[in-house]
Amino acid sequence: xxxxxxxxxxxxxxxxxxxxxxxxxxxxxxxxxxxxxxxxxxxxxxxxxxxxxxxxxxxxxxxxxxxxxxxxxxxxxxxxxxxxxxxxxxxxxxxxxxxxxxxxxxxxxxxxxxxxxxxxxxxxxxxxxxxxxxxxxxxxxxxxxxxxxxxxxxxxxxxxxxxx
Length: 164
Description:
Elements: H1 4-59, H2 73-86, H3 88-138, E1 146-150, E2 153-157
Antiparallel strand pairs: 1-2
Helix pairs in contact: 1-2, 1-3
């Protein structure tokens, strides 16, 4: 069994670590917001580029008949796919969107890890508290002092049952 001094040292370490987590979690959430804003900007840029393609496709006329070159939705969609697959700007922005999505997912995973670690440290702190309570029960005190369980933990029963 560990000594009380060793357990107290553990509690100091646990308290320090527990106090660090809220700021780390806050900073990670801020990072996720930043990454999501970047992702939204990239998605908007991609949508604008697609809109340009769609407008050009819709405006294109068949030189022989003067009618729309792509008369139905399937033909327009097929031409959009063809043009986007050949356009270097579109390929680049699509890759940037993919990287931004990955960045958001990775940051979210990091946040979840921090939150899980915070919960684990809280559980460990409860275990250490319980161990300290066991040590407190084993410690020899004055004849009239005894540790007694209460609804909120442990209390010292002294001087006729009055806790001081």
